């Protein structure tokens, strides 16, 4: 592929993401209105309304389009009345919303657990409201996701399977988060343990986003499985890129303190690699208080990690995963939506925030 | 009914609850094993293993038995292979476990929100472990409940409906908890608002327990609806009785500080009634710290509420609800399981803890 066409694809991917984001946002308004009790539902919507690229629901919609072999013009598609393999109507948008709603629940509860102050450039829900409300808002989003998913109106057997995938995904996310927390106390985490942890913490939700539309639309087992693995591969790459961005992007752009992972002793593929190179990772930053760390301290820590080749190592690892993930897409018909799914995989590791 | 037969029924009900509790406990072991990561799953199981009467799953199993017109000998019944109306096999035990798992999740998160120290006579999960682990344990139970419910292996359309009921129930519980918290700041709560709040906070889970087996076994709409209302009526009565017990049972027996609702400014039907009688409820207890309150203070506060007739009023209200709830059961065939469901409704307001 020439540089020119690569540029075009990236622009296309960004346009595709943006278009679907608007459509997903409108669907969130419909499926998750601000109900009574008002303060609860305002907290429920607070983080969703604060922004977000809607990458996971976009993956879900693109997979549906690719399977239906549609032209990728989202404006012309009624995702609420989407044809399955037998031509019966499925509300794939409900599934897309449910994935974003789960994502939002996990962010709210994670921010309580990590006691993070900022998310998407605004106070975390437990800061804007209080911890009680944030726990409850997360719990409400959790059940709403299932309420919304069962409205997908597909063949009931497939809805049951999709529900099972979503529930298992949530369990995995909790397990991953538990491991992530436990790793903070362990200096001997192995790279494979880390990759297993980010699979659970992050990648399974991409797996669910890619596989649920295939299940609802009646795709064959091989397609369902390969799409799941696409999600796992690109989801892992996404997490590794997140780890890189946490170190390399200015706080304002990141929407939270740069280097917060280092301050909070989070294990990442970067710190694991650096440890192997003999870097004393634990003393890179002298504080474990995000508010107390200085920009100069972070700068120096990042320079040490760069010198050790750890940031490049992470980027290579992410690139490998994306290449493998894209290969999985050969189970899909060749069409523009599939190309966008490939481009989206590239975007996940090229994005600057 | 003579006193003697009343006594016999109560003994029968207690026996029935105890028998089914053991069976449900064994099923929890099977459906929710202590997996990896171990610390997470130990926290997941901690409160379930600390005790509990399993009243909600018992309601669920009794409804299933009553619908199948079985003799009520639980030892002889395979709840994992239970015949629906068409004679097809349904795992009603999976549904029973899912209800108890949801109950456990709500208790863990509620105790964080209320910062309660004790539950079932042992430290609350966020005290025994920490808040992060308690949030995660609750979140894990949440998704496990759905994973377990979809294993009920009934007609997929009915599983989808049951899943929808469970998800909506969880949303209602969150809404009820949000209202309960908001009421703490409001001196002008109306009795109807209180009854609406405890419907959401407490009664809907009894509604789900009574209605989900009917859905899974293919009962008609009227039966499903009346059983739901049975759950709502007796669930509200259960909550009112809980409010009474919080004031009248010694702390050791209660498994937590007696009078904690008063200390925490929780609105109950008792305080609402007392307010109407001119009692200055807010100054009944001088502290809002459960650890600082004295037994003498609680004694005096309870005496004031008794003098105002507020505790008797609550008991009458609970009795009315139980009577109405029992009437709903006329949709069930007349059999021993139905009698036990009637007796269980009485027990909910006669129990001493």
TrEMBL record, chains A, B:
InterPro entries: Isoprenoid_synthase_dom_sf, Polyprenyl_synt, Polyprenyl_synt_CS. GO terms for biological process: isoprenoid biosynthetic process. The lineage of its organism: Archaea, Methanobacteriati, Methanobacteriota, Stenosarchaea group, Halobacteria. Keywords: Magnesium, Metal-binding, Transferase. This is Polyprenyl synthetase family protein. One of its GO terms (molecular function) is prenyltransferase activity. SUPFAM superfamilies: Terpenoid synthases (SSF48576). Coiled coil: none annotated. Pfam families: polyprenyl_synt. The keyword Metal-binding applies. Belongs to the FPP/GGPP synthase family. It comes from Halorussus limi. Its cofactor is Mg(2+). The keyword Transferase applies.
């Amino acid at each position: 592929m020439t540089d020119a066409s690569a540029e075009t694809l990236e622009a296309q991917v960004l346009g595709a993401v943006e278009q679907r984001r608007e459509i997903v946002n409108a669907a969130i308004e419909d499926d998750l209105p601000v109900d009574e009790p008002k303060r609860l539902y305002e907290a429920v919507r607070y983080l969703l309304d604060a922004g977000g690229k809607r990458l996971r629901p976009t993956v879900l919609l693109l997979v549906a389009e690719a399977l239906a072999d549609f032209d990728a013009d989202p404006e012309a598609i009624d995702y609420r009345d989407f044809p399955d393999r037998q031509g019966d109507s499925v509300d794939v948008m409900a599934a897309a919303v449910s994935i974003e709603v789960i994502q939002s629940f996990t962010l709210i509860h994670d921010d309580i657990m990590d006691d993070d102050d900022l998310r998407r450039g605004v106070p975390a829900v437990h800061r804007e409201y209080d911890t009680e409300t944030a726990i409850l808002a997360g719990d409400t989003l959790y059940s709403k996701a299932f309420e919304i998913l069962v409205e997908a109106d597909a063949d009931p057997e497939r809805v049951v399977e999709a529900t099972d995938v979503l529930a298992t995904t949530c369990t995995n996310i909790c397990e991953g988060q538990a491991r992530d927390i436990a790793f903070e106390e362990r200096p001997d985490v192995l790279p494979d343990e880390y990759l297993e942890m980010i699979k659970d913490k992050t990648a399974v939700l991409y797996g669910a986003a890619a596989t649920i539309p295939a299940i609802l639309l009646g795709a064959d087992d091989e397609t369902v499985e390969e799409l799941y693995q696409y999600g796992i591969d690109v989801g892992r790459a996404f997490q590794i890129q997140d780890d890189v961005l946490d170190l390399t992007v200015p706080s304002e752009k990141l929407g939270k303190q740069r280097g917060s992972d280092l301050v909070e002793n989070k294990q990442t593929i970067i710190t694991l690699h650096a440890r192997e190179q003999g870097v004393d990772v634990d003393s890179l930053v002298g504080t474990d208080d995000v508010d107390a760390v200085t920009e100069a301290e972070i700068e120096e820590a990042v320079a040490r990690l760069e010198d050790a080749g750890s940031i490049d190592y992470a980027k290579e690892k992410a690139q490998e995963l994306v290449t493998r993930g894209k290969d999985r897409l050969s189970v899909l018909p060749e069409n523009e939506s599939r190309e966008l799914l490939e481009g989206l995989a590239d975007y996940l590791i090229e994005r600057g925030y």
